Structure formats: structure tokens, C-alpha cells
Amino acid sequence: MAVRSSALDEDGAGASFAGQHETYLNVVGAAAVAEAVARCWASVRSSRALEYRRRQGFPLDGARIAVLVQQLIPADVSSVVFSANPVTGSRDEVMINASWGLGESIVGGTVTPDTYVVRRRT
Fold first, then answer.
1. pLDDT tens digits for 28-61?
2. Upper half-sphere CA count for residue 58 (Cβ side, 13 Å)
3. DSSP of 3-64, one letter per residue?
4. Residue partners of 72: CB distance under 8 A and separation at least 6
5. d(CA 64, CA 42)
6. Please, which residues have CB within 8 angstroms of residue 121's CB and are 6 or more apart in sequence?
7. Is 100 within 8 Å of 77 (Cβ atoms)?
8. Separation of alpha carbons 43 and 105, rounded Å
9. Are residues 65 and 5 in contact, defined by beta-carbon separation less than 8 angstroms?
10. Which of 44, 62, 79, 81 is deepest in the core (most CB within 10 A)?
């Protein structure tokens, strides 16, 4: 299973919380999933996440996080697709970051992905 965070105020116009909260991959068994969920919830209070919230001007109190439990599908190649170009803000472009392995390496910044920018119309 994949146990992933989703903060209520993440990925807005001015900030992306990608990589700030914990994600657990290849979790096997009910007890391990329950433990990963608890650790994922607790990551909203990690020093990394709180410092990021402070730097971005988000309140430190009352931060809320949802935790998703999903079936993990092993992948040879993964991508993260932005429906608008996050560099230029252009909604006429779609940006794709792709790399070998699971998408966590892209989101976590542990690889330099291949980047593709495509025009929405073509």
C-alpha cells in the first residue's frame, strides 16, 4: 500500500507542500498501515513542515492533514503532471516531470527528472 498525506491548504497559487509531509510506500499488513497512517498524520507537525508553513506565511496552529491509503502500483517510470506551467504560470502549457521508478523520487527531489512542456492546444 501507499500511505500519503494531503494537507488541506497545500498546492495553492503561491506554495506547494510537495515533499513536506511523510509518504510511506510498500506498506504491507494492517498493523503497518495503521502505524504509517499515524506517522503520516504526525508529520504535519514536523520541524520541516512547520518551517515551510512559517516561510510561506501559513498559520502554524490548526494545520490539518488528510491521509490517503492507496494500492501501490509498482512502476518502471513515473511522472508528475502540472495542468498549468508552474514556472511561468501559463495555463496554455502542461508541464510533465518524469523519471525512472516511483513518483516519490520526483516529488521528494531526490532525482532530476526529465521535463517536458507541451502546449495544451496541440
1. 999 999 999 999 998 888 888 888 888 878 777 8
2. 23
3. EEEEETT-S-SS---TTTS--B-S--SHHHHHHHHHHHHHGGGSHHHHHHHHHHT--STT--
4. 1, 2, 25, 26, 27
5. 10
6. 92
7. yes
8. 18
9. yes
10. 44
